[in-house]
Specification:
Oligomer: single chain
Distance between the termini: 26 Å
Radius of gyration: 22 Å
Shape: globular
Largest sheet: 2 strands, parallel
Strand order of the largest sheet: 1-2
Number of strands: 2
Helix content: 55-70%
């Protein structure tokens, strides 16, 4: 919500960026805190390239949001920590997300081919342009770049790496646990292909949300997503994406990491002539198994209750946004207080 508010988009409570930051400052003073940690993926994603005619217009809008942030933290010592994921992996994750939430993402994002998605998201994946923009506002020394690869993370773990950058010893914290329902898991390739087919059928948003939850349960029953899952991006497309951004990545490595050889990501590029990992399509047997499991879950009493809960939430969201915001906040607090299953 905070990141989106910088772009003029108001979330649950309808607060502006100024109101959010006024709250943060009041709480900082009340607690006597000397450091405030703000984390929001929407700092980079509230402004989207497809909302503009070209990359330049997108970049200008993104810069306005960053400059607004700078005004709100004026007078403070600011450190910007950003983790970069290799562009082909980032793009595959975005495509999985768009197909998985097809009826909720809006526009035609869920129907894009790999080549189309690579073109649409290209401005977002230009890490050099993005970091240069932030550096122009906050200064190069304020930008701390982490690389989202296990071999380049402290202990091979992004949590340990981030805490180290913040000067916090991990031993001070409880081991992280998650509520299973709150995890945004990627769907296995075959289950995702079924969801792609189902996206062609118009559904109300509350039903779409429950369908995603149900397909996650189906995926877990079938063993979950394996490390050898076929990619949504053909090898040739992945190489094109990496070639498009190679020069920018090298510039990031030199400017922000001091890597004179221009190496940002260590993982080897995919081979275009290697058929391993290419998706061969959804078999009749697998499609039938997914459909039968989905039908069993869909008809269950628990699922009917979820449908009703999401239906009520959708009506509240439209008619009583403040009540909906309060309900979501209370639910989040309840989940946080409840015993959590380790994952």
């Amino acid at each position: 919500m905070v990141g989106r508010s910088l772009a003029g988009r108001r979330g649950w409570w309808g607060l502006s960026a100024e109101e959010f930051f006024a709250q943060f400052e009041r709480q900082r003073r009340e607690d006597g805190a000397h450091t405030v940690l703000l984390s929001a993926e929407a700092f980079l994603g509230a402004v989207q390239p497809w909302d503009f005619d070209d990359a330049a217009a997108y970049r200008n809008a993104a810069r306005e949001a960053v400059e607004r942030l700078a005004l709100l933290v004026a007078g403070a010592t600011v450190t910007v920590i950003v983790y970069l994921r290799r562009q082909d992996h980032w793009l595959e994750s975005a495509m999985n997300q768009n197909i998985k939430f097809g009826g909720l993402v809006g526009g035609d994002l869920a129907t894009l081919t790999a080549e189309q998605a690579a073109a649409v998201y290209a401005p977002r994946l230009d890490y050099a342009a993005t970091l240069n923009m932030w550096a122009e506002v906050f200064g190069i020394p304020a930008i701390r770049v982490g690389v989202y690869e296990r071999d380049q993370l402290v202990d091979g773990d992004v949590v340990s790496d981030f805490l180290g950058r913040c000067g916090i010893e991990r031993s001070y914290l409880r081991e992280p646990t998650w509520n299973q329902a709150s995890r945004n898991e990627a769907l296995p390739r075959d289950v995702l292909e079924v969801k792609r087919i189902l996206n062609a059928i118009p559904k109300p948003k509350y039903e779409e949300r429950v369908l995603v939850e149900t397909l996650r349960a189906v995926a877990r029953d079938m063993g979950g997503r394996s490390a050898s899952e076929p990619s949504l991006l053909p090898c040739a497309t992945r190489r094109k994406v990496l070639e498009r951004h190679a020069d920018g990545n090298a510039a990031v490595a030199r400017t922000f990491l001091g890597h004179e050889d221009g190496t940002l990501f260590l993982e080897a590029w995919p081979e275009t002539d290697d058929p391993a990992g290419e998706y061969t399509g959804l078999s009749t047997e697998t499609a039938l198994e997914i459909e039968l499991r989905l039908d069993r879950y869909w008809r269950s009493p628990g699922n009917r209750l979820r449908l009703f809960r999401h239906w009520v939430a959708e009506r509240l969201r439209r008619r009583q946004p403040t009540a909906h915001a309060a309900a979501r906040t209370l639910r989040a607090l309840a989940l946080r207080a409840a015993p959590r299953r380790r994952s």
